Amino acid sequence: MASKEFLAFLENLLTPERKALFDKVLQQRTNHLTVVTEDVYQLHNTSAVIRSCDVFGVQKVHVIEEQKIKKIDREIAMGAQKWVTLSRHDNSLKCIKQLREEGYQIVATSPNGEAIELTNFDITKPSALFLGTEKDGLSQEVLKNADACIKIPMVGFTESLNISVSAAIILQDLTSRLRKSKISWELSDYDKNEVKFEWLRKSFKNFDYLVKKFENN
Fold this sequence. Notes:
Blueprint: H1 4-11, H2 16-27, E1 33-38, H3 43-55, E2 60-64, H4 74-77, E3 85-89, H5 92-101, E4 105-109, E5 116-117, E6 127-131, H6 140-145, E7 148-151, H7 163-180, H8 189-203, H9 207-216
Parallel strand pairs: 1-2, 1-6, 2-3, 4-6, 4-7, 5-7
Helix pairs in contact: 1-8, 2-8, 3-7
């Protein structure tokens, strides 16, 4: 983690308005929920999910790309990739193992009949929300290893939603309930400093120069 002195040095280079915005957004960030996309080939869908995570305050996003490795579509993410912590994985089972070790329950999103309706889902435990493609859904590996399965209630003829739409609906519901609850959903002081440092690092094009300037003072 960056030293408090270095963080203060970088923060002093921000405008007061920018610094206040960083602090305000940090207060609403959470690691209680994290989002995982599995083999979502359409760049605009993955990018839109990342944007929804930023909008609703979910800091960590995981992208599993077993079939084809690709870059996040920066134009559609609209800069959101700068503000979330993005992790990439090439294997679903390895990703599940890592998330379990970090204390998350594995939650699959699927319209199947046994799934819990979104509004009835228990938000008490830290949860990793797995999202698959609209056409094929999640892999059997994820579904077999899931601790819970949730679905969005639907009353029309259509049985599925685009992944980016699903992500926005799910995150709006869960984060809204989370903030109204007594659950300790906020980032720890350590995590706040880690995230703030990453935001600051990405805010300055001359970051390497600033590091040298700080070290020479």
